[in-house]
């Protein structure tokens, strides 16, 4: 399941550089997460790094993009070329 940045985002800029898949980018008003690139850091870290650094806790799971652990691993492998 992808993560999403909510309207509570304060644009502090700490999440974007932490994303190993470059899934986070500035949006029109707040940062946004590309669900096609978000693996919740599966394959890179034990926990999503953006959630770890977010000072306002505004990065929950995106219920619109349900994925299993295996689907996240497969996505990681496609993004990085690591198999």
UniProtKB/TrEMBL annotation:
Family matches, as InterPro entries: 4Fe4S_Fe-S-bd, 4Fe4S_Fe_S_CS, PSI_iron-sulfur_center, YfhL-like
TM helices/strands, residue ranges: none
Keywords, alphabetical: 4Fe-4S, Iron, Iron-sulfur, Metal-binding
Domain of life assignment: Bacteria
Record-linked Pfam families: Fer4_7
Residue ranges of every copy of the 4Fe-4S ferredoxin-type domain listed in the record: 1-29, 31-64
PANTHER family in alphabetical order: PHOTOSYSTEM I IRON-SULFUR CENTER, PHOTOSYSTEM I IRON-SULFUR CENTER-RELATED
Protein name: Ferredoxin
Name of the gene this protein is made from: fdx_1
């Amino acid at each position: 399941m992808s993560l999403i940045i909510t309207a509570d985002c304060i644009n502090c800029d700490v999440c974007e550089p932490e994303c190993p898949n470059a899934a986070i980018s500035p949006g029109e008003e707040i940062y946004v997460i590309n669900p096609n690139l978000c693996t919740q850091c599966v394959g890179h870290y034990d926990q999503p790094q953006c959630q770890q650094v977010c000072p306002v806790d505004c990065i929950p799971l995106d219920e619109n993009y349900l994925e299993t652990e295996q689907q996240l691993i497969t996505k990681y492998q496609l993004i990085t070329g690591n198999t």
